[in-house]
Amino acid sequence: MANLFVMHTSASLTINENASPDVPLDMEDALNRMVPEGHQYRHLDEGLDDMPAHVKSSMMGCSLTIPIRGGRFCLGIWQGIWLNEHRDYGGPRKICITLQGKPRSDGRLYK
């Protein structure tokens, strides 16, 4: 098993379709309708996009747990891991990855 954790409060992780270039655009449109930047937020210390980014991050989540089989993530054919940036101009992001499980019985590495 792999646990992925994004170490920021204005970015998120999710699993979603990775084939169509329209899916990320539609997801962003949907999130912006649910959490608009024009709302009267009290927390404005880092700009108008900051508080909506915190809300979107909380809605989407900051971690994923993904099974590993044969040394690879066990994902469906159309699934991909998304790092979602919710700020208009986000900076570098760090992801902490923790692996759990048993090594191969023959001691060889997975390719």
Commentary on this structure:
The chain has a single domain (2-99), classed as YjbQ-like (Jelly Rolls, Sandwich). 22% of the residues lie in helices and 29% in strands. The protein has helices spanning 22-34, 50-60; strands at residues 2-6, 11-17, 63-66, 68-69, 72-73, 79-85, 95-99. Strand 4 (68-69) and strand 5 form a beta hairpin. The radius of gyration is 17 Å and the shape is elongated. The model has no long low-confidence stretch (mean pLDDT 93). Belongs to the UPF0047 family. This is Secondary thiamine-phosphate synthase enzyme.
Key terms for this structure?
111 residues, alpha+beta, Jelly Rolls, three-stranded antiparallel beta sheet, two-stranded antiparallel sheet, 2 helices, 7 strands, elongated, YjbQ-like_sf, UPF0047_YjbQ-like
What is the CATH class designation?
Mainly Beta
Strand fraction: 25-35%
In the sheet with the most strands, the strands line up as 3-1-7
Number of helices: 2
The whole-number mean of residue pLDDT values reads: 93
Rg, nearest Å:
17 Å
How would you sum up the global shape?
Answer: elongated
Number of strands: 7
* Main sheet: strands, sense, barrel: 3 strands, antiparallel
Question: Would you identify the CATH H-level superfamily?
Answer: YjbQ-like
Q: First CA to last CA: what distance?
A: 17 Å
The CATH topology assignment is Jelly Rolls
How many separate structural domains?
A: 1
Which second-level CATH architecture applies?
Sandwich
Structural class: alpha+beta
Helix proportion: 10-25%
Regions with little confidence, pLDDT below 50 for 5+ residues: none
Write down the secondary-structure element order.
Answer: EEHHEEEEE
